[in-house]
Amino acid sequence: MAKRKRIKTGLPPGTLVFTGKQHVKEPNVILLQYHDGEALEQQQKDKLIVPKEGPYSNWYDVRGLHNAELIRQFGELYSIHPLVLEDILNTQQRPKIEEYDNGIFITAQALTVEEKGVELETEQIAIFFGNNFLISFQEKEDDNFLDVRNRLLTASSKLRRKSPDYLAYSLLDNVVDGYYPVLDHLEEQIEELERTILTSPEHDTKSRIHHLKRQLLTLRKGIVPLRDAVARFSRSDSPLIKDDTLVFVRDLSDHTMQIIDTIETYRDLVNGLYELLQSEVSYRTNNVIKVLTIMSTIFIPLTFLAGVYGMNFDYMPELRWKYGYFMVLGVMFLTFILLIGYFRRKKWF
User: How many whole angstroms from its chain centre is CA 100?
Assistant: First the structure.
């Protein structure tokens, strides 16, 4: 990725260079035109679709960003500022919102959990909307906005009666809703790690905790700037944003705050897991040392007795006594019993 970003070094602002990873062979362009009584959908591969004339609001959904020429054509069709087009192709953008005379530009990070449930996958979402049009850009072929599209194709949908600013809110709300399954996944990982630590810590437990902390950091890097962008969206006085839409955007802002609070809680829990692991390892080590110490304490007097009667002196009366061997064994056994009783009384085991 660093090599791709260095391609732009020295180029003038507004130069269209794709800096991400190509996820699709050909960009897929979907045009959905709608008004209160009708919704029309068209689809083309790697080609700009000319919208049908009429009282429609136009929603272009572009999946795949590596074709800079296609992005430039959208810029010409809707007079999009070159810096916006540059940011669309730069997939490492921080979530933000920018207002222009003819439109509003928003970027966000969509997060999903990969199939194996180990890594978090990020995808930049870019949205530009103005009077009677909205263009959304997705990096990957998977449709993040399928639910919104299905709602728009439903005859009774509120989306059909709203302007593109409400559609932009709906797309952002869909992105934010995608954070909740990720949070649920992380919560399951935290609970599983806690059970593992309390029962039998494994060799990779520490690395799993570290990996979980990195996932939470990725999540936080996506949602914190998005919170700021949504808050600015909710306070916008742009004529492109209707007052009745701002009510919904403020609710979306509350959702982002809730997610951030949950992330902070999870970060504290993960830090607590690391402390719990250290404590559990110390506790188990202390138990092992305690057992070894008790065993050593028991065998020290027994070893002493065995050492005394193992000395090679000529005159040791007990050596010629008929019951000397059994007496020494009895003393050893009695010593063992007394020590065990003493340890039991002290509750050392």
Answer: 32
135 touches 127 (CB < 8 A): yes
Helical spans, DSSP H, in the chain: 2-6, 68-78, 82-89, 146-153, 164-177, 179-199, 205-234, 243-308, 324-345
Among 172, 290, 164, CA closest to 238: 164
Q: How far apart are CA 28 and CA 136, in angstroms?
A: 12
Q: Which strands sit side by side in the sheet containing 38-45, from one edge to the other?
A: 38-45, 28-35, 57-63, 133-138, 120-130, 103-113, 96-100
One-letter amino acid of 56: Y
CA distance 269 to 275: 10
The tokens for 71 are 């992005």
| Tokens at 250, concatenated | 């403020």
C-alpha closest to that of 176 among 200, 205, 144, 208: 144
Instruction: Show the CA angle centred on residue 31, arms to residues 115 and 161, nearest 5°.
Output: 100
Q: pLDDT tens track of the chain, all 349 residues?
A: 444 555 566 567 767 888 878 778 889 999 999 988 888 899 999 888 888 888 889 999 999 988 889 999 999 999 999 999 999 998 888 899 999 989 999 999 998 887 666 678 888 999 999 999 999 999 888 888 999 999 888 888 888 889 999 999 999 999 999 999 999 999 998 898 888 888 877 778 888 888 888 989 989 998 999 999 999 999 999 999 999 999 999 999 999 999 999 999 999 998 888 888 778 777 787 888 888 888 888 888 888 888 887 777 777 777 777 777 788 888 888 888 888 888 888 777 6
Contact 139, 91 (CB under 8 A): yes
Report whether 270 contacts 209 (CB < 8 A): yes
